[in-house]
Amino acid sequence: MKLLKGFGITLLSLPIILIVIFVLYEIFGMCVNHMTTKKQTTTLQMHLESEIPDIKIISVYSETGNTSGTGNHVDCLSSIIFSTEMQDREIEDSLSKYYVFDEWNCYVNKTDDGYYTMYVNTSAPFADNIEGH
Question: Fewer Cβ neighbours under 10 Å: the N or C end of the chain?
Fold first, then answer.
């Protein structure tokens, strides 16, 4: 009788245990995704500062989540606004050893007020995380 009662309690608590494991996995994935975005942004800033001698960082922005609004996926977005005397092509050439410029996930754009924006968007390690839905 005790064995049957123990089996019944285990069977009834199994869904709760599985839900708790799933929630903890999602939280772990969110933390890893955010750490990856922070590392990507820090690395981008380091590369810009090391390759562009006269750079002046205006703004640093990062975002983790579904940045495009399409599909169920998580992206790591890093964007830095800066000023320099270099031209678009020179900036891309100096950073081409670190990044592949494809005009969609990685590009340099000159703004209307004369600043440049370096934009990098990569897939997160836990791309199917709840943050992407």
Answer: N
